[in-house]
Design a protein that fits this description.
17% strand; alpha/beta; 7-stranded mixed sheet; 37% helix; Aspartate Aminotransferase, domain 1; 4-stranded mixed sheet; globular; Aspartate Aminotransferase, domain 2
C-alpha cells in the first residue's frame, strides 16, 4: 500500500473529488474548524498545527480580532476596484510603510504576484538607466513563486519541469556567498538587482551568516543596483521582528510580503523605498482584486493583533525554546545533520529523504511538513503557548529518532 493510500485508510472519511486538477498530492485528511494552534477534523479529532498553513496563519485559526474584522467589513463593503480611492488601502499602506521603513506599496493577492511586481520594478529601473538587457542575480536553492517569471527566478528543477522555455534574465549564485556575487558583478555591467530570501524557507530553512544581508546592502550601494528581499515566508513577525532584515538594521530597496499578512485571507504586497518607490506610473501595473476593502481590513487587524499581543517577542522566545529543545533531545543522534532556524522558522536537516515523518507526525496528531527532501520544517503560529511548544519538542524529537532507527 502506498503512503497516500495508507494514510487515507487511517484518516479520511469525507468525500473524495475527481473534479480537481491533479497538481497536488494531498494528504487525505480534512479539517472542519480551528481555534488557536489547533485544527479539528470532521470526526472531532484535534491536531496541533505546527505548520500554520505554510506560514500563513501566524495568528492561529479563527483569531477573535481577525474574525470580527472580516465579518464587520464583509457586512459593509468587500470590493470596489482600484478605479476608486480605497480608504482602508490608504490606511494599510501607511501602516506597512511605518513598520517596514518603506515609502510606497503595491497591493496584490499572493507572494508570487508580489515578487512579479518586484521583478517588473527591476525592469523599469533598468530601462531608466538605459540598460536594455537587464539581469537580476538570484540565489541557488531559492523559491519565489510559480508564475513564469518567478519560476524562472526559482532554483527548483522539480517545480520548473515541463515549463520551459523559462526567462533567462536571472543569474544564479550560491546562497550565503558574497564572493560569488562580486565575481558576477566584475564581469557584467547589466546587473540591476539582487533578489533573495533573508531565510530560505522552501529551500530548507537555510539561515545565512549574520553579516550576509549587510554585505548584500553594501554591494547594492556600491554598484547602484536594487536590493530586493522576498519576505513572503519570513515577514510579519515570524523571525522575531516585523521583517527579517530588521535584525541586521538595514533597509532594502524592495520587499515582498504575503502569507501571514492576511492570516489566511489572500493578500500580497510589494513595498519599495527611494527611487524604486517612484517607478510604477498609472497603467504600468495593476491588480483587479489587489488591496480591496476586505483584504485591507483583515491585514490591518493582523498588524494590530501582532502589536497588541507582542507576537514578535513571542516568536523570538518560542523560536529559541523549540530550537534549543530539539537540539538537546536530538544531540548526538546519528542521522541528524543540524537543527537551525530564526524565530519560528525552524528546520531539522536529516541525512536522508524523510517524507514518511509527515505521516508519523499525523499519527501523533501533529501537523508538520518536509521541504528540500531532507528537512523537517516547523512553522508554528506566533500565538503558540508554552505547553504547545513543549508538545512540539516532545513529538518531533520522538518521531525523528524513531524514523532514523527504522
Amino acid at each position: 500500500m502506498t503512503r497516500t493510500a495508507a494514510t487515507a485508510a487511517v484518516f479520511y472519511f469525507g468525500e473524495m473529488s475527481n473534479n480537481l486538477m491533479k497538481n497536488y498530492s494531498r494528504i487525505p485528511i480534512s479539517f472542519l474548524k480551528g481555534e488557536g494552534s489547533w485544527l479539528q477534523t470532521m470526526s472531532g479529532e484535534k491536531y496541533l498545527d505546527a505548520l500554520s498553513g505554510i506560514a500563513v496563519c501566524g495568528l492561529g485559526h479563527c483569531h477573535p480580532m481577525i474574525t470580527k474584522s472580516m465579518q464587520d467589513q464583509a457586512a459593509q463593503l468587500v470590493h470596489t476596484s482600484n478605479l476608486y480611492e480605497i480608504d482602508l488601502q490608504n490606511k494599510l499602506s501607511k501602516k506597512l510603510c511605518q513598520i517596514a521603513n518603506m515609502d510606497s506599496v503595491f497591493f496584490c493577492n499572493s507572494g508570487a504576484e508580489a515578487n512579479e511586481a518586484a521583478i517588473k520594478l527591476a525592469r523599469l529601473f533598468a530601462h531608466k538607466k538605459n540598460i536594455m538587457d537587464p539581469k537580476i542575480i538570484v540565489m541557488e536553492n531559492s523559491f519565489h513563486g510559480r508564475t513564469i517569471a518567478t519560476l524562472s527566478a526559482t532554483d527548483n528543477k522539480k517545480a520548473q519541469h515541463g515549463f520551459s522555455p523559462l526567462i533567462n534574465d536571472f543569474i544564479f549564485v550560491p546562497y550565503n556567498n558574497v564572493q560569488a556575487i562580486e565575481e558576477v558583478l566584475s564581469k557584467q555591467n547589466n546587473v540591476v538587482a539582487l533578489f533573495l530570501e533573508p531565510v530560505q524557507g522552501e529551500g530548507g530553512i537555510c539561515v545565512p551568516e549574520k553579516e550576509y544581508l549587510n554585505n548584500i546592502r553594501d554591494i547594492c550601494d556600491n554598484h547602484s543596483i536594487l536590493m530586493i528581499l522576498d519576505e513572503v515566508q519570513s515577514g510579519m513577525g515570524r523571525t522575531g521582528s516585523w521583517f527579517c532584515y530588521q535584525h541586521n538594521k538595514i533597509t532594502p530597496d524592495i520587499i515582498t510580503i504575503a502569507k501571514s499578512l492576511g492570516n489566511g485571507y489572500p493578500i500580497g504586497a510589494c513595498l519599495a523605498k527611494g527611487v524604486a518607490s517612484e517607478l510604477f506610473t498609472p497603467g504600468s501595473h495593476g491588480s483587479t482584486f489587489g488591496g480591496n476593502a476586505l483584504a485591507c481590513a483583515t491585514a490591518l487587524s493582523v498588524i494590530e493583533a501582532i502589536e497588541t499581543e507582542k507576537l514578535c517577542k513571542n516568536a523570538r522566545i518560542y523560536g529559541e525554546k523549540i530550537s534549543r529543545g530539539l537540539e538537546k533531545i536530538l544531540s548526538g543522534v546519528d542521522g541528524v545533520i543540524s537543527v537551525r532556524g530564526k524565530g519560528l522558522m525552524i528546520g531539522i536537516e536529516l541525512n536522508r529523504p524523510c517524507h514518511d515523518i509527515i505521516d508519523m507526525a499525523l499519527q501523533e496528531k501533529l501537523l508538520i511538513n518536509v521541504t528540500a527532501e531532507k528537512v523537517v520544517r516547523l512553522l508554528p503560529p506566533l500565538i503558540i503557548k508554552d505547553n504547545e511548544a513543549e508538545l512540539i519538542i516532545k513529538i518531533v524529537g520522538k518521531i525523528v529518532k524513531k524514523f532514523l532507527n527504522s
